[in-house]
Design goal:
Elements lengths: L1 H10 L3 E4 L22 E5 L2 E4 H17 L6 H27 L6 H8 L6 H4 L14 H13 L4 H27 L4 H12 L1 E10 L12 H11 L6 E2 L2 E10 L4 H20 L3 H8 L5 E6 L7 H9 L5 E7 L2 E24 L5 H18 L2 H8 L3 H4 L4 E5 L6 H8 L6 E6 L2 E24 L4 H17 L3 H11 L3 E7 L5 E2 L2 E2 L2 H9 L9 E3 L2 E11 L2 E2 L6 H21 L5 H8 L3 E7 L5 E2 L2 E2 L1 H7 L11 E2 L3 E11 L8 H26 L3 E2 L6
Antiparallel strand pairs: 1-7, 2-3, 2-24, 4-19, 4-23, 5-18, 6-13, 6-17, 7-12, 8-9, 9-10, 9-12, 11-12, 14-15, 16-17, 20-21, 22-23
């Protein structure tokens, strides 16, 4: 909800955002000869092909919304927005048909209730932006002002449309999910089983010999055994894989040089005369600032860490430009636009709330109090006795200096349109306020606008690094030579494993689209040309590829081999531990100690720090005093003696278990419903062909 704070800040005198150029919607590659549209699809959802233009329009709307808030975009931000839009489209297309069948909708009154009513969304109610700074309490009217502003200001049209759509969609999703949750109710049988699983416990003594006691090299197996094991299990979900690539790469980081930094400062110095002379500050800043936003802010003494710079801004004449100065990773020049005066008022009030009360009766009380305070001059005493505004009672009802935008219109009129000393009644949605104007003033506000340039490598620095990377790429054109060359030159080789077409990060590389596209078009062993990504240059070599479907035996050989070895070790240990039922004798025979575990159950399968559900399940079928056969576990092979079994106590009610089961089922609904519908929809994502 940071955007809300931004908008509320923008709606006052302290910050004015001038609309600038929006991100251009350019899809020239979508047109074939003769100017006819060439249909392109970015994927398929539930049998419906997703037109690239429709998808791109939604992405551009999100970017337009960010621009309206003055939020900069970058390749990383754009990629994140693309993913968000795609996921939203999936959710809408798989969920909406189900919601329509169920008759789920949101009425206008319900929407108003979510934004301003008693059931206001937590994102509004809990946002500190809507806390009245005078009272320290949540102020519903600040939400109203915010909503009115974004609805009526053309600059924020895209932002508001997206926010409204998000609120409506989320409300419909919530209603649909709640319908399902209401249908998931645990019964008495479920509850009894839950109770028994937790309360039927066993105390045991056991001997366990770990698989690690046998060296892997001492386990014999054949290639045929491995392949047979794989073939019997390759239909399992764990062996399904997506399309991916694996490659090694060298990252050539290009850092700005000292000369680059000086060049940026000089560039800004040369810009100062034009910045001072222009009468179109907004256009000048939009065209020349890396921030691509025009923001007029109020500068007050002490806002800068550098006292001398702070003083220069405060003392500069209107139209003068100060800087360049360093701010984060940018150099900045700031133009002083001059001073404006802001009207401010200081008042005190008594609030008589009308919430749940007869308005006429409250108005009559307010009239009576007004006569009393005017006659007896006891305003502060009346605040203590009668005011129902908890945020201001402790200060005698005083609201310190505020501007015309802070309060609701009726309260503002009583504070600014009446003379100092006047005591009047103002009716607002909160009730009747008896307002006394304590003071009015006009405060000078120094306005500035800033132009920023990021400290980035120059073309010369990029070219120098590119030539270094290009020489490496040409000289080391195979995987083995790539590794040899890197070691010789002292380069660090990173490995990217199982990278998908839609990967939005590779190691420390954000927005790796060009790198990933190369990987999916290359042959194993092929070395790339230098690939520029922001201020980085990458040279990579493809080392492996996986196609979508069932994993090949070679791809999962290590997993299969580990499981076969574990199974063979279990067979060896079972044979070693077979036939000895005295735990002391067994412990001596296999060189392992006797141990105990208390209160194991279906709800507590921990034995000696290892989760052993299969062993516990078998143990709980035994009677007290019995010794098990050797049992294959996750950590080793166990022989268990049951010391005692504690049966569950009979109870009259399983209400606690029913509540627990219902809660657990409900917590899984949102994700599992969507995942089930998504799987049924057979989503195919082809965006990597275009982005």
């Amino acid at each position: 909800m940071a955007a809300i704070g931004k908008i509320r800040q923008n709606s006052g005198l302290l910050l004015i955002v001038i609309g600038g150029a929006m991100v251009a919607f350019v899809l020239s590659d979508m047109f074939s000869q003769g100017g006819r549209v060439q249909q392109q699809y970015v994927g398929e959802i539930d049998g419906t092909s997703i037109d690239r233009m429709v998808y791109e329009q939604r992405v551009q709307k999100e970017l337009e919304s960010r621009n309206s808030l003055g939020q900069p975009t970058s390749p990383q931000v754009t990629e994140s927005i693309r993913n968000t839009v795609w996921n939203n489209m999936i959710r809408e297309m798989v969920m909406r048909p189900q919601m329509q069948k169920a008759g789920v909708l949101v009425t206008p009154d319900e929407f108003d209730d979510l934004t301003l009513g008693d059931n206001m969304l937590p994102e509004f109610r809990n946002d500190p932006t809507f806390v009245n700074p005078e009272t320290g309490e949540f102020d519903r009217d600040l939400v109203r002002q915010y909503l009115d502003f974004v609805r009526t200001t053309p600059q924020y049209r895209a932002y508001w449309e997206l926010q409204r759509e998000r609120i409506l969609n989320q409300r419909m999703y919530d209603k649909y999910h709640n319908m399902i949750k209401r249908g998931l109710v645990a019964n008495q049988i479920d509850a009894r089983n839950e109770y028994n699983a937790a309360k039927r416990t066993a105390n045991i003594r056991y001997v366990m010999k770990e698989y690690a006691s046998i060296d892997d090299a001492d386990v014999n197996f054949t290639e045929s055994e491995l392949k047979s094991y794989f073939n019997e299990r390759k239909g399992e979900a764990r062996f399904k894989q997506g399309e991916s690539r694996t490659f090694d790469y060298i990252l050539f980081n290009v850092k700005p040089s000292a000369d680059d930094s000086v060049a940026i400062q000089n560039y800004l110095r040369e810009m100062i005369p034009d910045f001072e002379q222009t009468r179109r500050d907004s256009v000048f800043v939009m065209n020349n600032s890396d921030a691509r936003t025009y923001q007029v802010i109020v500068h007050k003494p002490g806002m800068m860490d550098d006292e001398a710079l702070d003083a220069m801004i405060m003392e500069a004449d209107s139209g003068k430009v100060v800087g360049p100065y360093l701010q984060g990773n940018s150099y900045v020049i700031s133009k002083v636009l001059g001073d404006v005066q802001e009207e401010q008022a200081r008042v005190r009030h008594i609030l008589l709330s009308t919430d749940g009360k007869d308005k006429d009766e409250v108005k009559s009380r307010a009239d009576s109090l007004l006569r009393v305070v005017k006659r007896q001059k006891n305003f502060e005493e009346m605040v203590t006795q009668f005011s129902e505004d908890p945020g201001s009672v402790s200060t005698g009802g005083v609201y310190e200096w505020f501007n015309r935008e802070r309060m609701v219109p009726e309260f503002t009129a009583a504070s600014f349109d009446e003379p100092v000393g006047a005591i009047t009644i103002a009716e607002t949605q909160y009730g009747f306020h008896i307002v006394e104007v304590l003071g009015q003033r006009k405060e000078d506000q120094r306005r500035i606008v800033s132009l920023t340039r990021n400290i980035e490598p120059s073309n010369e620095s990029m070219e120098e690094a590119y030539q270094e990377a290009n020489a490496f790429s040409l000289n080391y054109d195979s995987h083995s030579r790539f590794l040899e060359g890197a070691e010789s030159a002292g380069y660090t080789v990173e490995t990217a494993t199982d990278i998908s077409r839609l990967a939005n990060m590779v190691g420390q590389i954000n927005n790796p689209t060009d790198l990933v596209r190369w990987a999916f078009g290359a042959k194993v062993g092929q070395v790339s040309e230098p690939i520029e990504i922001d201020t980085k240059i990458v040279v990579a070599v493809l080392t492996g590829k996986k196609e979508e479907g069932i994993a090949s035996f070679e791809d999962v050989r290590d997993v299969i081999e580990a499981e076969v070895i574990k199974n063979k070790k279990a067979e060896m240990l079972i044979a070693e531990m077979q036939g000895i039922t005295d735990l002391k004798e067994l412990a001596t025979a296999v060189g392992a100690g006797q141990r105990t575990a208390q209160n194991i159950s279906f709800s507590n399968t921990n034995i000696g720090g290892s989760s052993e559900p299969a062993v516990v399940a078998k143990v709980l079928t035994l009677e007290s005093g019995l010794v098990s056969v050797p049992l294959k576990g996750e950590r080793g092979v166990y022989v268990v003696e049951v010391e005692n079994i504690t049966e569950p106590m009979e109870v009259d009610s399983f209400d606690s278990e029913i509540r627990s089961l219902n809660s657990r089922m409900a917590s899984r609904v949102n994700a599992e419903v969507f995942n089930a519908l998504k799987e049924k929809a057979n989503v195919r994502d082809d965006r990597a062909k275009f982005y």
